[in-house]
Amino acid sequence: MRHPSWGGRLIVLVPYLWLGAFFLVPFLIVLMISLSHTAVAQPPYAPVLDPAAGWGGLRDFLAALSFENYAFIGSDWLYLASYLKSLEVAAGSTLLLLLIGFPLAYGIARAPRAWQPALFMLVVLPFWTSFLIRIYAWVNILQHDGLLNQVLLTLRIVDEPPTWLSTDTAVYIGMVYSYLPFMVLPIYATLEKMDESLIEAAADLGCPRWKAFWLITLPLARPGVIAGALICFIPIAGEFVIPDLLGGSQTMMIGQTLWTEFFANRDWPVASAVAIVLLGLLLVPIVIYQQLQARGPEGGR
Amino acid sequence: MRKASWFNVASVALGLGFLYLPIVVLVVYSFNASRLVAVWGGWSTRWYAELAGDRAMLESTWVTLRIAFLSATAATVLGTLAAIALTRFGRFRGRMLFAGMVYAPLVMPEVITGLSLLLLFVAVGVDRGFWTIAIAHTTVTACFATVVVQSRLISFDASLEEAAMDLGCPPLKTFLTVTLPLIAPALASGWMLAFTLSLDDLVIASFTTGPGATTLPIRIYSEIRLGVKPEINAVCTIMVAVVAIGVVAASLLAKFHHVAGERAAGLAARA
Questions:
Q1: Residue A53 lies in a domain
Q2: Does A192 fall in a domain?
Q3: Is B119 within 8 Å of chain A by CB?
Q4: A263: distance to nearest CA of chain B, Å?
Q5: ipTM exceeding 0.85?
Q6: B20, B21, B26: which to substitute to probe chain A, counting the most A Cβ within 10 Å?
Q7: Which residues, including other chains, have CB under 8 Å from residue B55's CB and lie 6 or more apart?
Q8: What is the pLDDT of residues B115-173, one digit of tens each?
Q9: I need a labelling partner for B177 at 20 to 30 A (CA). Which of B16, B25, B63, B138 fits?
Q10: A51 in any annotated domain
Q11: Does B109 touch chain A (CB under 8 A)?
Q12: Mean per-residue pLDDT for A86-106?
């Protein structure tokens, strides 16, 4: 298909227009509404661009926009605490995911070849079942008279049933549980491609196993580790369902703040500004990732 | 064959145990005769029987399945077009923006995607409900379908298509007789991914829904917020079972095709 004909143009045009209409335009609308202010009207924000008013209308519209929502978010401790909480949970969960995901990926990559597809499949399978269901499964276990407390009481590890639900511990458990496949897959993909004779050569030359792991395996797995960390960090920072069902009400993550701002307070302009700031924050790890990718090949040598 | 060290075995066993234990607990509890979760009242299927009489739940299931089917189909078509555009068209004008629009929704937090689509629907002034959810799901899942189809398009040799066209085969026929059969497995897995993502989605559906379109996740979510209920355990068990059967069947089918293909290739090589 070297000469794009009218049919070729159509192939580009259809998804282009679709994504433009339902991804780009909505994003611009969010950006615009984040600069407006709430109004008791339908829709509940002002100014509203009126195409019938012509250029004069456009000028009035632009003049009425302001950055007051951003100033408001910056001055209110509630939002700042939410952002910090999100970053804290995302960073902590990503670290835990690495600690649990790496040995799992490593174990699968070192399993007998014939078993690998089956083990791989077992890691992926939960990803296909509903996210909501998997979180709900933990509510069953962590609630006050749930399985965990029953086991702890029966084994006499504790005398009083501790509270698990509505704590940060529960949020971390939920995050690690939900995102584990996303961490394991990229790491496994890099470890599986690794040439094992490298390790054998190191062993033959008298290198201890832990040192070979540190000097050979880990650097070679770096692209997978970084990709996995990124794939987990970004959605966790914006997560809503997990903190809402498993977490407490002391400090909300930013996804919850956005949700309440929108559904409970019906403050659409502030909700939009919260979304734009969150996007800006999430661009940071993506840019870092691209920097790391750009100088990727010589790393690990 | 390599020898598995105890550490590797332990980490795989613990990891898989962690992944599956909660689901097993959920399934077992769904057969608990007692309404109280803490009390084991013996095996029973009474929650499944109650579920069969729950009109609201059945209605939500039907709405969810219809949305998932529609949006997965539309997303696969859009995703295939986008993947062809990205892999076979080289550098066309606006490619950067196009690639950005394809990849950005993959990492975009759901709350933001949902919010932006809702604001669009409000600005345009359409009634929200079934169709707005379907459009929202199509948009997001199309990006996932693109990635799946794209990886398949990259992995096979474009010279096959070029050879067909050099021999005078028109582009459309080339696509139908050469490209499509080669990417068919990717289309199937892209469709399935889109279908399950749509089936699963709570956040985007909550933003874009309207009166009369309560999807299953929205209903389950509002019930869970009120506490654990055995009926919900039963619904979840059915969903897990359906997905598990679907995925295992699909992978067995793919394996069968793979084996058959290799056998055919082997015979061809011998001949």
A1: no
A2: yes
A3: yes
A4: 9
A5: no
A6: B26
A7: none
A8: 999 999 988 888 899 999 999 999 999 999 998 898 888 877 778 888 888 888 888 88
A9: B138
A10: no
A11: yes
A12: 93
Residue A75: exposure state from Cβ atoms within 10 A (0-12, 13-18, ≥19): exposed
Say yes or no for a CB contact (<8 Å) between B122 and A43: yes
pLDDT tens digits for range A161-195: 888 888 889 999 999 999 998 899 889 888 888 77
Does B28 lie at the interface with A, CB-CB under 8 angstroms?
Answer: no
Q: With CB atoms and an 8 Å threshold, state whether A240 touches B111.
A: yes
Does B33 contact A at CB distance below 8 Å?
no
Chain A nearest-CA distance from B138, in A, is: 10
Q: Record the pTM.
A: 0.84
CA B147 vs CA A185, B75, B84, B144, B150: distances in Å? 16, 12, 11, 5, 5
Q: Set out the domains of chain B in order of their start, with CATH numbers.
A: 59-253 (1.10.3720.10)
Domain range holding A121?
Answer: 67-294
User: B242 falls in which pLDDT band (50, 70, 90)?
Assistant: confident
Record: contact B2-A132, CB cut-off 8 A = no
Quick one: closest CA in B to A255, which residue? B111
Q: What is the CATH number of the domain that holds A129?
A: 1.10.3720.10
pLDDT in tens, A60-93: 777 778 888 888 888 888 899 999 999 999 999 9
| Residue B117 contacts A, CB cutoff 8 Å | yes
When pLDDT is averaged across residues A19-40 and rounded to a whole number, the result is: 88
**Domain total for chain A?**
1
